[in-house]
Amino acid sequence: MYKYDEYDQQMVDARVAEFSDQVRRRLAGEITEDQFKPLRLMNGLYLQLHAYMLRVAVPYGTMSSKQLRMLGHIARTYDRNYGHFTTRQNIQFNWPKLRDIPKILELLASVEMHAIQTSGNCIRNITTDQFAGAAADEILDPRPVAEILRQWSSLHPEFLYLPRKFKIAMSGATHDRAAIRFHDIGLQATTNAEGEIGWEVWVGGGLGRTPIIGKLINPHVPHEHLLAYLESILRVYNRYGRRDNKYKARIKILVHEEGIDNIRAQVEEEFSHVKGGVLTLPQDELDRIGAYFAAPAFERLNSSAIDVAREKIINPSYGRWLDNNLNAHQRPGYVSVTVSLKPIGGAPGDATSEQMEAIADLAERYSFDELRVSHEQNLVLPHVKIADLPAIYEKLVEIGFAEGNAGLITDMIACPGLDFCALANARSIPIAQELSRKFAAPERQKQIGDLKIKISGCINACGHHHVGHIGILGVEKKGTELYQITVGGDATEQASIGDILGHGFVAEDVPDAIERLVDTYIARRESEAEPFIAAFRRLGKEPFKEALYGNG
Amino acid sequence: MATVSAVASSPLHSAHKPDPLRQLGIMSLNGMFDEMDGVAVLKQAKEILPDDLAIVSSFGADSAVLLHMVAQVDVALPVYFLETGKHFAETLTYVETLKQHLGLTNIITLVPDPKDLARFDPNGDLWENDPDSCCHIRKTEPLDAAMEGYGGWVTGRKRYQTKERGVLPHFELTSDDRIKVNPLAYFSDVEVNAYKLKHGLPEHPLFAKGYKSIGCAPCTTIVAEGEDPRAGRWRGLNKKECGIHFDFNGAIAKPMAAEDLTLFKDGAFIADPFRVWTEGDDPASVRYTHIPVTVFLANRDAVLANPHPVGLLVSPGDRVEDVEKDLGRFASVAINFPGFTDGRGYSSARMIVERYGYKGEVRAVGDVLADQIPLMRRCGIEAFVVKHEPTRKALEAGALATVDVFYQPVGKTEVPLGTRPFLRRAV
Predict the structure, then answer these.
(1) Which residues touch A507 (CB under 8 Å, ≥6 apart)?
(2) Separation of alpha carbons B40 and B25, rounded Å
(3) Which of A2, A117, A446, B186 has the most CB within a 10 Å radius?
């Protein structure tokens, strides 16, 4: 894991002091709320429906047990004893007081954490594969480059007042678990014909009210020129991105309006000036940062298979957990464990202080002190010995996070929705809870298989509904909360955006509507091996539309 | 407000004739008489303005140099002395000394309008409460009235004297189409003293006591070794000029107030020689004005032929690529931030400074606030036109909230240092 040196610490400490002064000046009336707003946003502080919300960065989703314990401590001391893990691998506290924020930031700084650029029209937290450095299908561990990008983008003076927010995601594996094609910039590790590893650069993807799949702008940028290339993209965007309309200000609109070829030419022109300059990344520096992410001291283990069938007979819940919540590891005898924060009927992504502390203990004891946050709002123990799985499971049962549902229909993404968010038109958490209960039966979930439901409480799409196999979007029509249903979205390397099937449903009718879609899939699939998304692609939307609205 | 006494003692000429001056072109004048040759500058001025040129002298510490040059050109040139009524006795003696020594035949004393004194300064202590107004009634008003009759006047101002005077040329066209002649503009402190020595000029009696710039007695103090020579004037007040000279940018002369010092540069608020472009300005003849990029591009030839110092105003959306090759023409580039959340200016500034190597002043104008200034500085902006009062206070107190360690190499000064890991540097 990356460790702050004196310099990093100095910077974060200075930032806390700077923001404390800004809070003081705001309270003293020296700056107006309009002037304060971008400053607080760049420090992760939102004003929500009921209170301030503080969003803390978990850079590329990686943290230590000490850091998670501190998050638990903050939740207990300054909030209502829980935090909410987000789709950008961050954590949000929903009820802090403005006067406590400087203290909270100080506590975070003491464990090498911060809230810098978790909001605002700047470069946000860089996200990546939650299994980075562990996954069996990895081309390279993206985290050293992610850390370098974190440093490059932190308080970059040119890019703190962009037209709109800017999100970068990276994938170092062949399977995209970071939704890179739905980010402003997506970076996919790749090997070119000469066998050199570099980055495919995708640009202009995004969700929100205009979902667009990113376009390939450059098929291979070597490490040494990556910063120069990204700075070139950012400069073109900063200069020419639209500022006349907030809803058309993301880079996806610029790319869409000007065309990818035109944007590519502008970026190349800029790159021709920047390339080879001070932003050239020396191999030394990559190695130096890379050393922080060196593999932990894995034991030499024989690859041991677990007899899941036998475990299922003894304890079906444990068997399901083994079936669904493990991810193949690079090292024999190890796996990555997904700790599902989606207990049946729970609020997706929420964890209490006690739960955070217990998971921190597990990480310390069984996973080389490392933890990950996934963009699907779960936590991950990346390096676990297979032999330790029973002990881990037992502890998870104790804290209520032992649901074996990772990747299944009840492992939903949901935004905070109208229960918390000032932007929302409709509630999302209660919809997720209702669906979770409806599909709670393990046999039913197994029968359905891989099906991702994603729920957003408004058009801003924080719940990623566009890329849900089934997406649910809360809207408000004539004072009523209605839910539009989309089908066929996919956030992976086979990126697609879901189709709206028809008019919306009132909240009470949503679970039944989803069930009709699921039943249609099961009735029409070729076999159990054909997942929902594949069946949808083969069948088209008609059968699903009919399931929702009849054939009239 | 006419001043009877001034009018009475002024040989009023017919109305001045500015057009030939303008046609001649101040720029070419300055080109022809560049640097140093003060007497030649003065001769040239007399040729252009026969019987239409006056000298203003404070009879201060350095005045002998200019008056010595005047005497070489024409001892009958009118020399005006502002008798404010507040001078040191030594100054009044010195007027006589120089008159005798140099053989000047036409020294005219201007006194304040007694009605003004009775009305605004009945107790003679206005300098204490409101030095700006004191200067105004004792200097600006009498001089304005006297100068009405002249097409041009000669001053002894020098560039080195204060930061505000750092752009001073030999010849200036003022806002009311008069010419100001500054034969000593390029003289340094050392050169002034060498000149005095070489020509055996009598010293102001107070000079040896440590007075380097001498005005009225109440507002003049001794200057310490190494201080700005004019630091002894209006010491402790945010005031640098008395008002009679404050139109070197072409603006109407008026008393200086603290709020007029809007330009923050080199650690202090100073008078801004530039003014804002306004609709209807003529790009061919404006001076000390930031011409918008769009106006410049549409009138490129006219601006390039404009003889006056001008700046360039770069607004969001302007393509700095289009002005790259002409940047050297401009004395100053203003980066416009119409709203502080519009970050386009940061990119423009970096390109102008880093990519195009522009060496002149780069300033931020518009919505310039305390929390963005550190970012602007990192992008190469070094001067700030500030209107926001708390920001002004923070700058004056040197108390900007900022993070002064950073990761990225940005701007001219942030190349990575060998002693630090890549991309990092502390201020």
Answers:
(1) A426, A427, A430, A431, A434, A481, A483
(2) 17
(3) A117
Q: Quick one: pLDDT at residue A534? A: 97
Q: Which of B316, B341, B406 sits opposite A38 (nearest CB)?
A: B341
Within this chain, do residues B110 and B253 fall inside the same structural domain, yes or no?
Answer: yes
Q: Which domain holds residue A428?
A: 413-549
Look at residues B257, B276, B308 and tell me which one is the last residue of a structural domain. Answer: B257
Per-residue pLDDT tens for B368-381? 999 999 999 999 99
Q: Are B356 and B333 in contact (CB under 8 A)?
A: no
The interface pTM score, or ipTM, of the predicted complex is 0.93
d(CA A245, CA A254): 12
- Kindly report, residue by residue over A425-483, the tens digit of the pLDDT: 999 999 999 999 999 999 999 999 999 999 999 999 999 999 999 999 999 988 889 99
Is B421 inside a domain boundary? yes
Give A489's Cβ-side CA count (13 Å radius).
32
Structure tokens at B31: 């080109």
Residue identified by tokens 């190695």 is A287
Backbone angles phi and psi of A475, in degrees to 5: -130, 165
Sheet bearing A185-191, strands edge to edge: A127-128, A168-171, A185-191, A197-203, A215-222
DSSP string, B129-140: H-HHHHHIIIII
- Hey, what are A113's tokens? 């954490």
Residues of B in contact with A160 (CB under 8 A): 343, 346, 375
B249 lies in the same domain as B299: no
Clarify whether residues B220 and B309 are in a common domain: no
**Is A273 in contact with B355 (CB distance < 8 Å)?**
yes
Within 10 angstroms of residue A193's Cβ, the number of other Cβ atoms is: 6
Residue B8 shares a structural domain with residue B94: yes
Instruction: Count how many domains chain A has.
Output: 2
CB contact under 8 A, A155 and B403: yes
Cβ-Cβ contacts under 8 Å, B404 against chain A: 14
Looking at the structure, do residues B185 and B308 belong to the same domain, yes or no? no
The Cα A488–Cα A470 span in angstroms is: 6
In a domain, A333, yes or no: no
Task: Indicate whether A175 pLDDT > 80.
Answer: yes
- Residues of chain A contacting B424 with CB distance shorter than 8 Å: 7, 151
Same-domain pairing of B89 and B138: yes
Same domain, B306 and B222: no
- Cα–Cα distance for residue pair A446/A469, rounded to 1 Å: 16
Q: Report the CATH number that the domain containing residue A270 is assigned in CATH.
A: 3.30.413.10
Give me the residues paired with residue B220 across strands.
B233
Whether chain A has a CB inside 8 Å of the CB on B403: the answer is yes
Answer yes or no: do B186 and B302 share one domain: no
Please give, rounded to a whole number of angstroms, the shortest distance from the CA of A234 to a CA of chain B. 10
DSSP H stretches of helix in A79-183:
101-110, 143-153
Total number of domains constituting chain B: 2
**B264 located within any domain:** no
Binding-site residues on chain A for chain B (CB distance < 8 A): 5, 7, 10-11, 14-15, 17-18, 21-22, 25, 30-31, 35, 38-39, 121, 148, 151-152, 154-162, 235, 238-239, 243, 273, 278-279, 281-282, 284-285, 288
Give the residue ranges of chain B where pLDDT is below 70. 1-36, 129, 160-167, 174-177, 221-260, 412-427
CB contact under 8 Å between A278 and B415, yes or no, is yes
H helix intervals, B33-147: 38-48, 63-73, 89-102, 114-120, 126-129, 131-135, 141-147
Amino acid at A293: F
Find chain A residues with C-beta within 8 A of B406's C-beta. Answer: 11, 155, 157
Q: Which domain CATH number covers B324?
A: 3.20.20.70
Task: Report yes or no: B61 and B172 within 8 Å, Cβ to Cβ.
Answer: no
